[in-house]
Amino acid sequence: xxxxxxxxxxxxxxxxxxxxxxxxxxxxxxxxxxxxxxxxxxxxxxxxxxxxxxxxxxxxxxxxxxxxxxxxxxxxxxxxxxxxxxxxxxxxxxxxxxxxxxxxxxxxxxxxxxxxxxxxxxxxxxxxxxxxxxxxxxxxxxxxxxxxxxxxxxxxxxxxxxxxxxxxxxxxxxxxxxxxxxxxxxxxxxxxxxxxxxxxxxxxxxxxxxxxxxxxxxxxxxxxxxxxxxxxxxxxxxxxxxxxxxxxxxxxxxxxxxxxxxxxxxxxxxxxxxxxxxxxxxxxxxxxxxxxxxxxxxxxxxxxxxxxxxxxxxxxxxxxxxxxxxxxxxxxxxxxxxxxxxxxxxxxxxxxxxxxxxxxxxxxxxxxxxxxxxxxxxxxxxxxxxxxxxxxxxxxxxxxxxxxxxxxxxxxxxxxxxxxxxxxxxxxxxxxxxxxxxxxxxxxxxxxxxxxxxxxxxxxxxxxxxxxxxxxxxxxxxxxxxxxxxxxxxxxxxxxxxxxxxxxxxxxxxxxxxxxxxxxxxxxxxxxxxxxxxxxxxxxxxxxxxxxxxxxxxxxxxxxxxxxxxxxxxxxxxxxxxxxxxxxxxxxxxxxxxxxxxxxxxxxxxxxxxxxxxxxxxxxxxxxxxxxxxxxxxxxxxxxxxxxxxxxxxxxxxxxxxxxxxxxxxxxxxxxxxxxxxxxxxxxxxxxxxxxxxxxxxxxxxxxxxxxxxxxxxxxxxxxxxxxxxxxxxxxxxxxxxxxxxxxxxxxxxxxxxxxxxxxxxxxx
Length: 765
Known about the structure:
The protein is α+β, with helices and mostly antiparallel strands. It is built from 21 helices and 30 strands.
């Protein structure tokens, strides 16, 4: 039907085009005839005269052909109008803008169509959003030639069918069916079925069901005597001939309705084969002992691509649930695991498909069989895989954070003792260069640990309001050095881009990682484009299992012209230690670090890629509309009035090397240091009322009582003592606890000798 419509439209459009060009063809022949007239000899004029006459003849043929086609169209239109006028169902003809061109008698009587200007107006408030439904159907008809949709109205169900005809006009036919079940052809099904609402009210009963029951029931529990209904289970059905066993298959429909299909059984459990089994609305298999498929209904054959089931084994169709399919079926034949759904993977299907398989045991003509009902569980399995992946990423993040915390303790001890050695060696000392190397490599190790903390979102941040245009401009010189000579870096800025709140150093690391990856993807050179834009989301943006709330965002896009990322790798690129580079060329932490920093900042990062064309990373940062923001609080570094400090410091640190370095550093500056390896020792020392303490310097995470807890207890009797918290985790890891403690500051690990002494001096003074 659609193909014939396409042909008619094509002929119509061709005829119109040819009729339009016929005068042009005739005019093109006039110069040829003129040339023939002025030629000196008849022989020389003959070709021009022949060409001109040919064009005149062609123009005449085009006019005749166009007139013939238009005449045929008029006859077809008249026949169509005559045919539709007698149709018992409403029929409308509309133009491309939805205006009514014609309607038949039934349409006028039921919808008063001749009083309306558009089809949407004629239908009025018969159903919700008629304009949207008609617009959707018309667009589909423009693409495919026809479209059809079932809608629920106040009168029942209405099937709307539209055909595209010549001159971009549309013919609409409305078929009313007050008892149509969710648009399904239940009335023509040979299998008994009924449709019920959520409350169990029967809305529709097909002819096969009416014959079986002998009447039209009002409620599901009037005919099914052992409610509630369980999918695939054997129930008792009250028929006109008495109670019979049936197997019920419920199928969810629209608007909260459920369609129930009934498969009759004998008292011994034997299934009636033939049309009943074939007409099941779900894929179903009959299985013999040993795993051979006895039969499969149409949907099952289509699912597995089977022409017949001769010699087909279940092991060929499905992968077992952690064990062999034969063992699983053998248990089912012995009565174990029946009616317990198993999710299996289908083999030899075009796409990866998972099926939920429910087994039931029946007897057919004296032969014991299994009935397998199959339900598509691919989406459920996909969600499960994503959940497992998120759990794995969370576990890796916790592991990375714990490892980084321990490494920060080690690096604090290494760099701290190195600082102590450097105090006793000047630049002319032979060991001075070695100590500097140790110090520099400790700082490099601290940077790597910072990447782990960024991935686990436990990295310390110094938040400030940033203009990304200024940040990228300041970073341009370094980025140009990173990309090399073959690659060109292009910056495109939106003048309306808004400020964001983030850690400048960490954000620079994100852009450097993205630009370096883009450079590595273009071995032969190309252009890397960094573009900023102000975007207003009126509605939430949902993609890649993330939801970006409505609001104003500064968007940064980093795109390249490289090799692209294959589809099967895109979901893994933000995983830690995942890299496609050769050994020694990458750690696999670049993108996972960028992901962690962006998420910690409150932003979102997405990637789009086409293999062979390049990739584009899109970053969303919420705009921070703040004109002036106070600088983040930092420990005040007051220059001491005396060379040495004074005061009593209670140092609580469970890591002995860190405690040894910190106590030596503070004593060198003249402070009195009391050491404790845990909170209990610290509280024990403070039990002496004669002990005066000026500053608590304590680790946050310790065995037993943690830092904030013991400090709160100590401040109950010593309210004026100032506190310095140190930790290998980020400050926001315990931010709520610190906020409740007055006169406290935070010093992240690893810290240097000067960082420690300056922070302590700032608290003492």
